[in-house]
Amino acid sequence: TLNGEWAPFTRCPVDHPAMLAADGFDRTPQCVVSTSASGTIKLGDTTVVTGKTSLQMGVVQNADGTSSVVAPASGALVAEPATVPGGLLGLMCPSDIFVITGICESLENSSLNKITATMESVGTPYAFDQTAGVLTDLPIVALPVRIHLENPLLGSKCYIGTAANPIVLRPENRDYPAFGMTFFQGDGTPDAAGEMSRIDLTGATQ
Question: Is-above-0.90 flag for pTM?
């Protein structure tokens, strides 16, 4: 169980072969965590208020300036489900498709109208740029995702985006985050001369 300064890093894939092979000289292993309490995403003309999201991944920084991303087995992005305003009526109606029009007419004021949307990772993030994390208006990472729509009438396999053709999110800072840095010994003891470090970038809107 991780505590203190290490508590946020619960899903970092530290046991992945690529992370274990990083020697700290030619290849430096890092754990990256990004959390947000809430946000919004636009589906068609509908704006959905999202809940808490947690992005976690490993990054191997190479001496030549390149890097590679390692995703945890559970997926890099974990998000709370969000309720779609207006439900199916708001997302699909009106429609000029006869069958959908019939469904729409039967849904008004029905419990079958409720629909939730959950964002899911469908691949390993890529194009990670650590410098962009401290600046504004630069893509920090590419996140391939799909949105799982859940409703009794839609079945269990209704998605926007697929593993083969995902939605790719490119988060950027809209304002500058507050910067902080702490150093540690290899066993996690705080030490200004330690070989391990934690960088904190907080407060920014992406």
Answer: no
